Amino acid sequence: MKITIIGAGPGDPDLITVKGLRLLQEADVVMYADSLVSEALIAKSREDATVIKTAGMHLEEMVNTMVSYVKEGKKVVRVHTGDPAVYGATLEQMTLLKQQGVHVEIIPGVSSVFASAAAIGAELTVPDLTQTVILTRAEGRTKMPDREKLKDLASHHCTIALFLSATLTKKIVNEFLEAGWSKDTPVAAVYKATWPDEKIVRTTLEQLDEDLKRNGMRKQVMILAGWALDEHIHEKDFRSKLYDKTFTHGFRKGVTS
């Protein structure tokens, strides 16, 4: 017995993987997080497929529904937004499914963090500036482990992507400043990346809370912070070794003149 969890991508129905789309179109039963997954994507499923919205269902209800259909011999897919590996709440589903003898296959998807970077034309890792990206969230009702406090993570001064944190911007600003970030650090906030109503706000750490409040951006927002988000970065000369003509690697010998 098997069910497939598919990463739907950030919103644009064309950003699902080829494999994910094929499995969606082959499924007898499609269960999806209707609060986040595009209806246009779900419309690509078979006309005779059973389609179930799960936003109003609790964990056991979802799992029992999946198991009941699998036991009937149905091909079941569970469609998640973005990539299931990051804040996907998939582990708890897999735990209960495995207890009932159901194998889980996961198809990765495009995460909102990378869709947001693409929307603003940013490379999150820039040579001689930052080579690290931290994916995290601000602490709210879901507590953070002691070693993952935002202030401690920010002390690395690399690019930081903040999920599920748009209502906690005052906390973000305070903890970043305590970690030694400057008030003028570039920040980009992307609401519903790749959706038709996508909205992009470029701001600074100091102005983040005010700008998001003014734009009504308090949910479904990806916040990207760090100097890699500087909108004038293209005017500066950051180059990788990969294309440096003096750099030798396995496919090209460097030249000195």
Automatic annotation (TrEMBL):
Pathway: Cofactor biosynthesis; adenosylcobalamin biosynthesis. Residues 2-209 form the Tetrapyrrole methylase domain. PROSITE patterns: SUMT_1 (PS00839). It comes from the Bacteria. Keywords: Cobalamin biosynthesis, Methyltransferase, S-adenosyl-L-methionine, Transferase. Gene3D superfamilies: Cobalt-precorrin-4 Transmethylase, Domain 1 (3.40.1010.10), Methyltransferase, Cobalt-precorrin-4 Transmethylase, Domain 2 (3.30.950.10). Pfam families: TP_methylase. The keyword Ribosomal protein does not apply. Signal peptide: none annotated. One of its GO terms (biological process) is cobalamin biosynthetic process. One of its GO terms (molecular function) is precorrin-4 C11-methyltransferase activity. Belongs to the precorrin methyltransferase family. This is Precorrin-4 C11-methyltransferase. It comes from Fictibacillus macauensis ZFHKF-1. The lineage of its organism: Bacteria, Bacillati, Bacillota, Bacilli, Bacillales.
